[in-house]
Design goal:
The chain is α/β, with parallel strands linked by helices. The protein is 25% helix and 25% strand. It has ten helices and 17 strands. Bound molecules: NADP nicotinamide-adenine-dinucleotide phosphate (NAP).
């Protein structure tokens, strides 16, 4: 099952809003097949695993055990139901790490296998399997994207200055672009869009660009700014009229104290399973104050002092979960003390 989790992670950044899943087929303690869900629309892990079995080993399939990190699907979606494939192949025993919270599965995959006389054992490495699919579980159980807050601050806790200031080291920038490539969407506030003219892409790391999300109450971001270049899907929340132009969508919303949950609700409806919020301070603070965040990653440059500028957000009710030292910068990781809330929709 640990191998299933390793395989599952190979699909990171490619499968959303589907889950990461890995599968291994064993005959008498020897692996005869393995596979994973590689990208959205690709064969499921069980299918890839069974297809990987060599012709000489195919006769062993009806005497083998299948290990899979998530309950097999029992509905016909982009691919056929995995339960039917397992039954057709005559696999007698299936080990599952965790059940699938997706309403079309949710225990029905296990029930179908048992009904067909297959021995099913579930719960092996359950916590680890749920942890690697934190985006997928948050999306289905809390009906909102998994939210990561990220910022870079100086030694004296400022994230910006009068003039643009570079806080993180280029090595750290590679890591943060890797983070971007793993998430479905990335968000900034109006001042950040106006002052920094960010691209919010993954140019320092191979991987997909996330959907860009920004606040622009007056829909006044100049058309020659990078976020308007139509090179990645971009959602602009505004109080002006809703409209769509190639890769750009303006969505009319009220800018009141419910703005954060309202936006998360809309992102959920659009199938966005994770969001990295990259500033500025006001936007990050509004997520913190609403209590809807799942992780915070704070980069600190101990060699830089800004003295006067935009103060870093103030995290509250947070627990430190780890620290990382990079060339020049330190990263501190946090999670909320209490389990963060769902969004009504
Ligand atoms: N070091 C870093 O990691 C980092 C990252 C990003 C940005 N920055 C820096 O941060 C500075 C900008 O930060 P900032 O705090 O001034 O601005 P910001 O958070 O980027 O944008 C603030 C504006 O966005 C809108 N907004 C944000 N949250 C809202 C909410 N919950 N409800 C309604 N409106 C909301 C409001 O616009 P309206 O007033 O139009 O309604 C608000 O004035 C810049 O200096 C930038 O360089 C640093």
């Amino acid at each position: 099952m640990r191998r299933c989790l390793q395989l599952a992670l190979l699909g990171e950044g490619q499968v959303a809003p589907n889950p990461l899943v890995g599968a291994v087929l064993c005959f008498e303690d020897k692996v005869i097949g393995e596979g994973y869900h590689a990208y959205f629309g690709a064969p499921h892990a069980e299918v890839a695993c069974i297809r990987s079995v060599k012709a000489a080993d195919r006769e062993k399939i009806p005497f083998s055990k299948l290990f899979v990190s998530l309950e097999p699907c029992n509905h016909v979606g982009k691919t056929g139901a995995c339960t039917e494939l397992i039954i057709k192949e005559g696999i007698p025993e299936v080990w599952i790490a965790c059940t699938d919270p997706f309403e079309k599965v949710n225990g029905s995959g296990i029930a179908r296998l048992k009904e067909a006389g297959i021995k099913v054992i579930s719960g092996l490495l359950e916590n680890e399997a749920q942890a690697i699919n934190h985006r997928f579980f948050t999306f289905h159980q809390k009906r909102r994207p998994y939210v990561i807050l990220k910022w870079a601050e100086s030694a004296d806790h400022f994230i910006g200055a009068e003039n643009q200031v570079k806080i993180s080291h280029p090595f750290t920038d590679r890591l943060t672009h890797r983070w971007r490539a793993s998430e479905a969407a990335i968000m900034v506030g109006t001042q950040t869009a106006m002052k920094d003219n960010p691209q919010l892409d993954t140019r320092f790391w191979p991987g997909k660009n996330p959907v860009r999300v920004l606040l622009d109450r007056k829909a006044s971001l100049p058309v020659d700014f990078a976020l308007m270049n139509q090179q990645a899907p971009t959602l602009i929340f505004t109080e002006e009229e809703s409209r769509v132009s190639k890769n750009l969508e303006w969505i009319k919303v009220n800018f009141d104290e419910q703005l954060v949950p309202r936006i998360l609700n809309i992102l959920h409806q659009k199938g966005i399973s994770s969001l990295i919020v990259e500033g500025g301070a006001k936007l990050l603070q509004s997520f913190i104050d609403t209590g809807i965040w799942d992780e915070a990653r704070v980069i600190s440059n101990p060699l830089l002092s800004i003295e006067d500028g935009v103060a870093a957000p103030a995290l509250k009710d947070a627990i430190c979960t780890g620290k990382q030292a990079l060339p020049q910068d330190h990263i501190t990781y946090y999670k909320p003390k209490k389990s963060p809330i769902s969004v009504e929709n």
